[in-house]
Amino acid sequence: MVELSIHGKSFLLQINLIFRFIYKNSIYYLISYEGEADEIILPMSINGNSYVIDTFKSFASKITIPDNMKTIGEQAFYNCSYLTSVTIPDSVTSIENGAFYNCYNLQNVIGGNNVTNIGSNAFFGCSNLTNIALTSNLKSIGNSAFENCTNLSSIIIPDSVIIIGDLAFYNTAIYNNFNNWIDGALYIGNHLICVDEDIESFDMKEKTIISNKNVFSKCYKLKEIFINNLDVNLQYCTNLVVLKIDSINLSQNLHNIFQYNVPITLRKIILCENVKVLEI
Length: 280
Description:
Blueprint: E1 2-6, E2 9-16, E3 19-24, E4 27-33, E5 39-41, E6 51-57, E7 62-64, E8 71-72, E9 85-88, E10 94-95, E11 108-111, E12 117-118, E13 131-133, E14 140-141, E15 154-156, E16 163-164, H1 173-176, E17 181-182, E18 185-188, E19 191-195, E20 201-203, E21 224-227, E22 242-245, E23 249-250, E24 268-271, E25 276-277
């Protein structure tokens, strides 16, 4: 053990061959790899103890996460600029906030079949990432999770995802490609990702999944909307005139979709033949 002082605070630094750890508050933190290998596998443990990856730095371009790790923690590989490929074992279920933030050379994310959560800013600024495979175990994608991944042109979001945060795919190649926008809306699979704020009329496509309830938060100009999913927040659509509802079970109060701020401009609500009104 070597004593390390940072900003006046002392920590114990453990050098384990060529991996370096900091030990503080009874927790080991892996902070760097000092070797020259281009491909590395992170250690399973340190002195038989588990550890947390913390702003890890190395010159290695390919890193494999050990198969006993369950979480890739916050800012684990923050600004790890040499990283081009990471292999994530099936043991990992969560990629936390900022885990790969600004890893701008990252091109390949391999594995991660059991990941259920991708945190906010998890892959923010990974500008060389072109595609990523998301499996059916995934449930949530945080705010700005893939924002500024400017070369991300291909991604499949499974229907299992129930939460997609704001700006999750902003300034990606998917977002910036005009051909991906249809009638003022950006879909990825069945998920409605974004709606043009200048749109005045919108028809929701069949089987639409609303995983971001704020998708209409800037649609102040929207006057007419056709929806088939009530998991939506229309409270900001303050100029709405016509609301048309189809292919759903109307099992909740319509006030809920306006958050009890029904626009004074609303003049007509149309219930199509396929709507089934359920008693509450």
